[in-house]
């Protein structure tokens, strides 16, 4: 019994430490940083260039524009419009940057008339975030190359899923650069760069791509989700936090195949180099302008013979992290482990199947909230033998509690005699204190994987349930302290306790009543405090997660009640 209590207590304390640190330490720090963040400074372009050793090194491309509104910054360059079923935006002819992109099918708020999610933004305006492609040369080569200030020419008037955009620029020294942008109906850009060499000398050029983002991005700051620079190099996932780049400096990695970029909770901008070519990827932070950059540079280079031409093709993903879309690109283009742009976590082998099961049920039932309830029932049925063994064990221990209390009173501080008598009692009643531990431990990865799916994927975002829950990905909007809207007062954030978290707390309290009570008074007080603590903690969680947690508690209560009644164990002893 003692071993079982220690295991449960250890799990409880782990949750208290993890969630408590997140709620009371990290969240206030993140909010304070966000409040202190001033208007973003103008970023300086940095294209990777090969030095004598072929290592990426920064080469500044200064810009002198002052900080203006987004609309004003868009007007600082002629633009070609982007119009596809999934994306709106434009490409700047100055610098040929992809720096204006919004997601048609995703809105900032639940209201379908609210603004589209803006993924990329131009330099000079607020929160610059853009992608750039081009050529670089070795340090001992002197040749005019297109840069951030180059004004490209085109005969196209827009980029669509059916119509590519062709840009040209003549350097006036015998080199003609052509860049062709193609875009599918989802989120994949294909960039073909071609160079025609009319000179009498061969020239070696190195294709590069970069993503630049100015200012510390706002993140959820939650420990189970990575947001920031990310990539796969030589089949290994690399994840770097923004603050680590600031404090520890940049990181450079070489790879053949793979990808790199920046990820938010639901959105991704990623460079997809030629999967057959060796490249050097870099994660970097430039203090001047507070700019984060991920970039790659092909290491082998492209030799453009005199009187001939050469080309290279690379790709970029810019859009929502839709599971099926990422999987299709990974398969079609052989992009190494692109699916890991979604933070599936340690239990990947469980998390992704659970995602597809939940998606299937949501399509079948027509409501994601009901799908969460149905999937929880399915998981409960799948784990029924393990859970049954656990609950039977706990019921036996609960039934023995009066006898155990008598033994403690009889033997007092004689621990050796008390343990001897307890072991004899366990043997007589065929009760094993540790029998319930293993089933509980085996269930933890499965329920954590479901929790992960609900938190990190797009499934819940802006999905309604019933009644007052119009967005399963947002916290319960009601509040106990204004009597759920009856009092015209908006309580401070730490007092935002909605109806769902309260129901969860009640279900957690009821479930405790079915479990054997700890003999240690300190442990008992900790267990009694748990429902209150988790009620406040889960008040800020997405409603879908609270629904799952509450429903799971209720199913556990029903199962425990049935087993205890069958075994003749009173609930309230």
What does this structure look like?
With 573 residues, the chain is α+β, with helices and mostly antiparallel strands. It has 2 domains: 37-343, Beta-galactosidase, Chain A, domain 5 (Distorted Sandwich), CATH 2.70.98.90; 351-567, no CATH class. Helix content is 37%, strand content 25%. The chain has 13 helices and 21 strands. It has helices at 2-36, 70-74, 242-248, 323-333, 348-365, 368-382, 384-399, 401-411, 415-429, 437-456, 499-514, 521-538, 543-567, and strands at 45-50, 56-61, 79-83, 87-92, 98-107, 116-120, 129-136, 158-160, 165-170, 175-183, 188-197, 203-214, 228-233, 236-239, 251-256, 258-263, 267-272, 278-286, 291-298, 302-304, 309-320. The protein has an 8-stranded antiparallel β-sheet, with no helix packed on it. Strands 7, 12, 15, 18, 19 and 20 form a 6-stranded antiparallel β-sheet that branches. Strands 6-5-4-3-8 form a 5-stranded mixed β-sheet, with no helix packed on it. Strand 16 and strand 17 form a beta hairpin. The longest helix is centred in the first third of the chain and has 35 residues, at 2-36. The chain starts with a helix and ends in a 6-residue tail after the last helix. 37% of the residues are buried. Residues 1-8, 25-45 and 52-65 have low confidence and may be disordered.
